[in-house]
Amino acid sequence: MDYNITWRKKDKGWQFIISFKDSTGKWKQKSKQGFKTQKEGKPVIENMLDDLEDEIENQKHLNVEYTGITLKKFSEIYLEHETLYREQNTIEMKEYSLKKIEILEDMLLKDISNLDIQKCVDTMVKEDLSKQTIKNYLSMLKAMFNSAIDQFDIITSNPVTNIKLPEDKGTKEKTALTQAEFKNLLDSINDTRLNLITLLAGSCGLRIGEILGLKWSDIDEINLTISIKRQLKKIKKKKKYGLGSLKNKNAYRVVPLSDNVYNELKNFKNTNPINFNDRLFNFTNTASMASRLSELYSDKGYDISVHELRHTYATTLIANGVDFKTVAKLMGHSVEQTIKTYSHVTDEMMKKATQTIRSIF
């Protein structure tokens, strides 16, 4: 690598400037300042030279076909590729993420820097987006830039690194109803369909998409179980709701039914005509149903979502001594995910255990 180093006094200290030729033969510069002596800066120079040599070597292997590609054009290629392998909801999340940096869409992909991404994040912070929401967007964007590095050989480094994020404002703790509160909520819902959906979420731990994907053939009236085999979700390419595969392999499961839940299902079946496709419910949109239920619960005095009723189900099981492995299987989670999500329950159980130990010994 052709380069030379110069030093100059700056801000009561020393600054070094490395002038070097990049992979195209153009001269460029990198600098760093704030050193009390030149000797103090020499190790930093050595590290920077090593990094530059690696970067220039990597650039020699870049795909020249994409040399002048913009963020907008690459994102189109990337999304078209991802659509073959990802669920429609994931594709839409990636599209939302790209909208957050659309101000950069006319820039060459290779010219987008960490600072450019940071400015976009600063805008998100001004929009009062939560830290977790911003992290979700950045995760999607980081995956796209990694693809530009590993699959397309367009760039050598990912600009979505070392991004400063806002401080945590404190996340809303997941709500879990007591069994008395859950019963009161059910008693207050007169619509039989919405009542049964609520019951299945809070007494079986089902996701809203799983509930709306249920068929009567999934219910085993002899063993009193319900098999989760599909969900109502957005289908790839069509971008319309339809019955499809579950979230992951853990989501395929068999959940036991209590006598109460089975009787409610039986009553519902006897009083409602079975539709031609054997589905329990004819609703066609999970998002609108989730929103409708949240409004309903709020009107009844409960600040809870239908998804959080799964939280009620899991919390109740753990608090009553069901082990994490079993709860994970019933929820369609991994054991690690279940422990992480419900660690607060074990804290409460530890307090009870402490009291029990003290009373015994």
From TrEMBL:
UniProt domain Core-binding (CB): residue ranges: 69-149
Listed GO biological process terms: DNA integration; DNA recombination
InterPro entries reported for this sequence: AP2-like_int_N (IPR028259), CB (IPR044068), DNA_brk_join_enz (IPR011010), Integrase-like_cat_sf (IPR013762), Integrase_catalytic (IPR002104), Integrase_recombinase_N (IPR010998), Integrase_SAM-like_N (IPR004107), Tyrosine_recombinase_XerCD (IPR050090)
GO MF term set: DNA binding
Protein keywords: Coiled coil, DNA integration, DNA recombination, DNA-binding
Annotated protein name in UniProt: Tyrosine-type recombinase/integrase
Sequence ranges assigned to domain Tyr recombinase in this UniProt record: 172-355
Pfam families to which the protein is assigned, alphabetical: Arm-DNA-bind_4, Phage_int_SAM_3, Phage_integrase
Function, as annotated: Site-specific tyrosine recombinase, which acts by catalyzing the cutting and rejoining of the recombining DNA molecules.
Entry similarity comment: Belongs to the 'phage' integrase family.
Stretches assigned to coiled coil: 42-69
Organism: Clostridium sporogenes
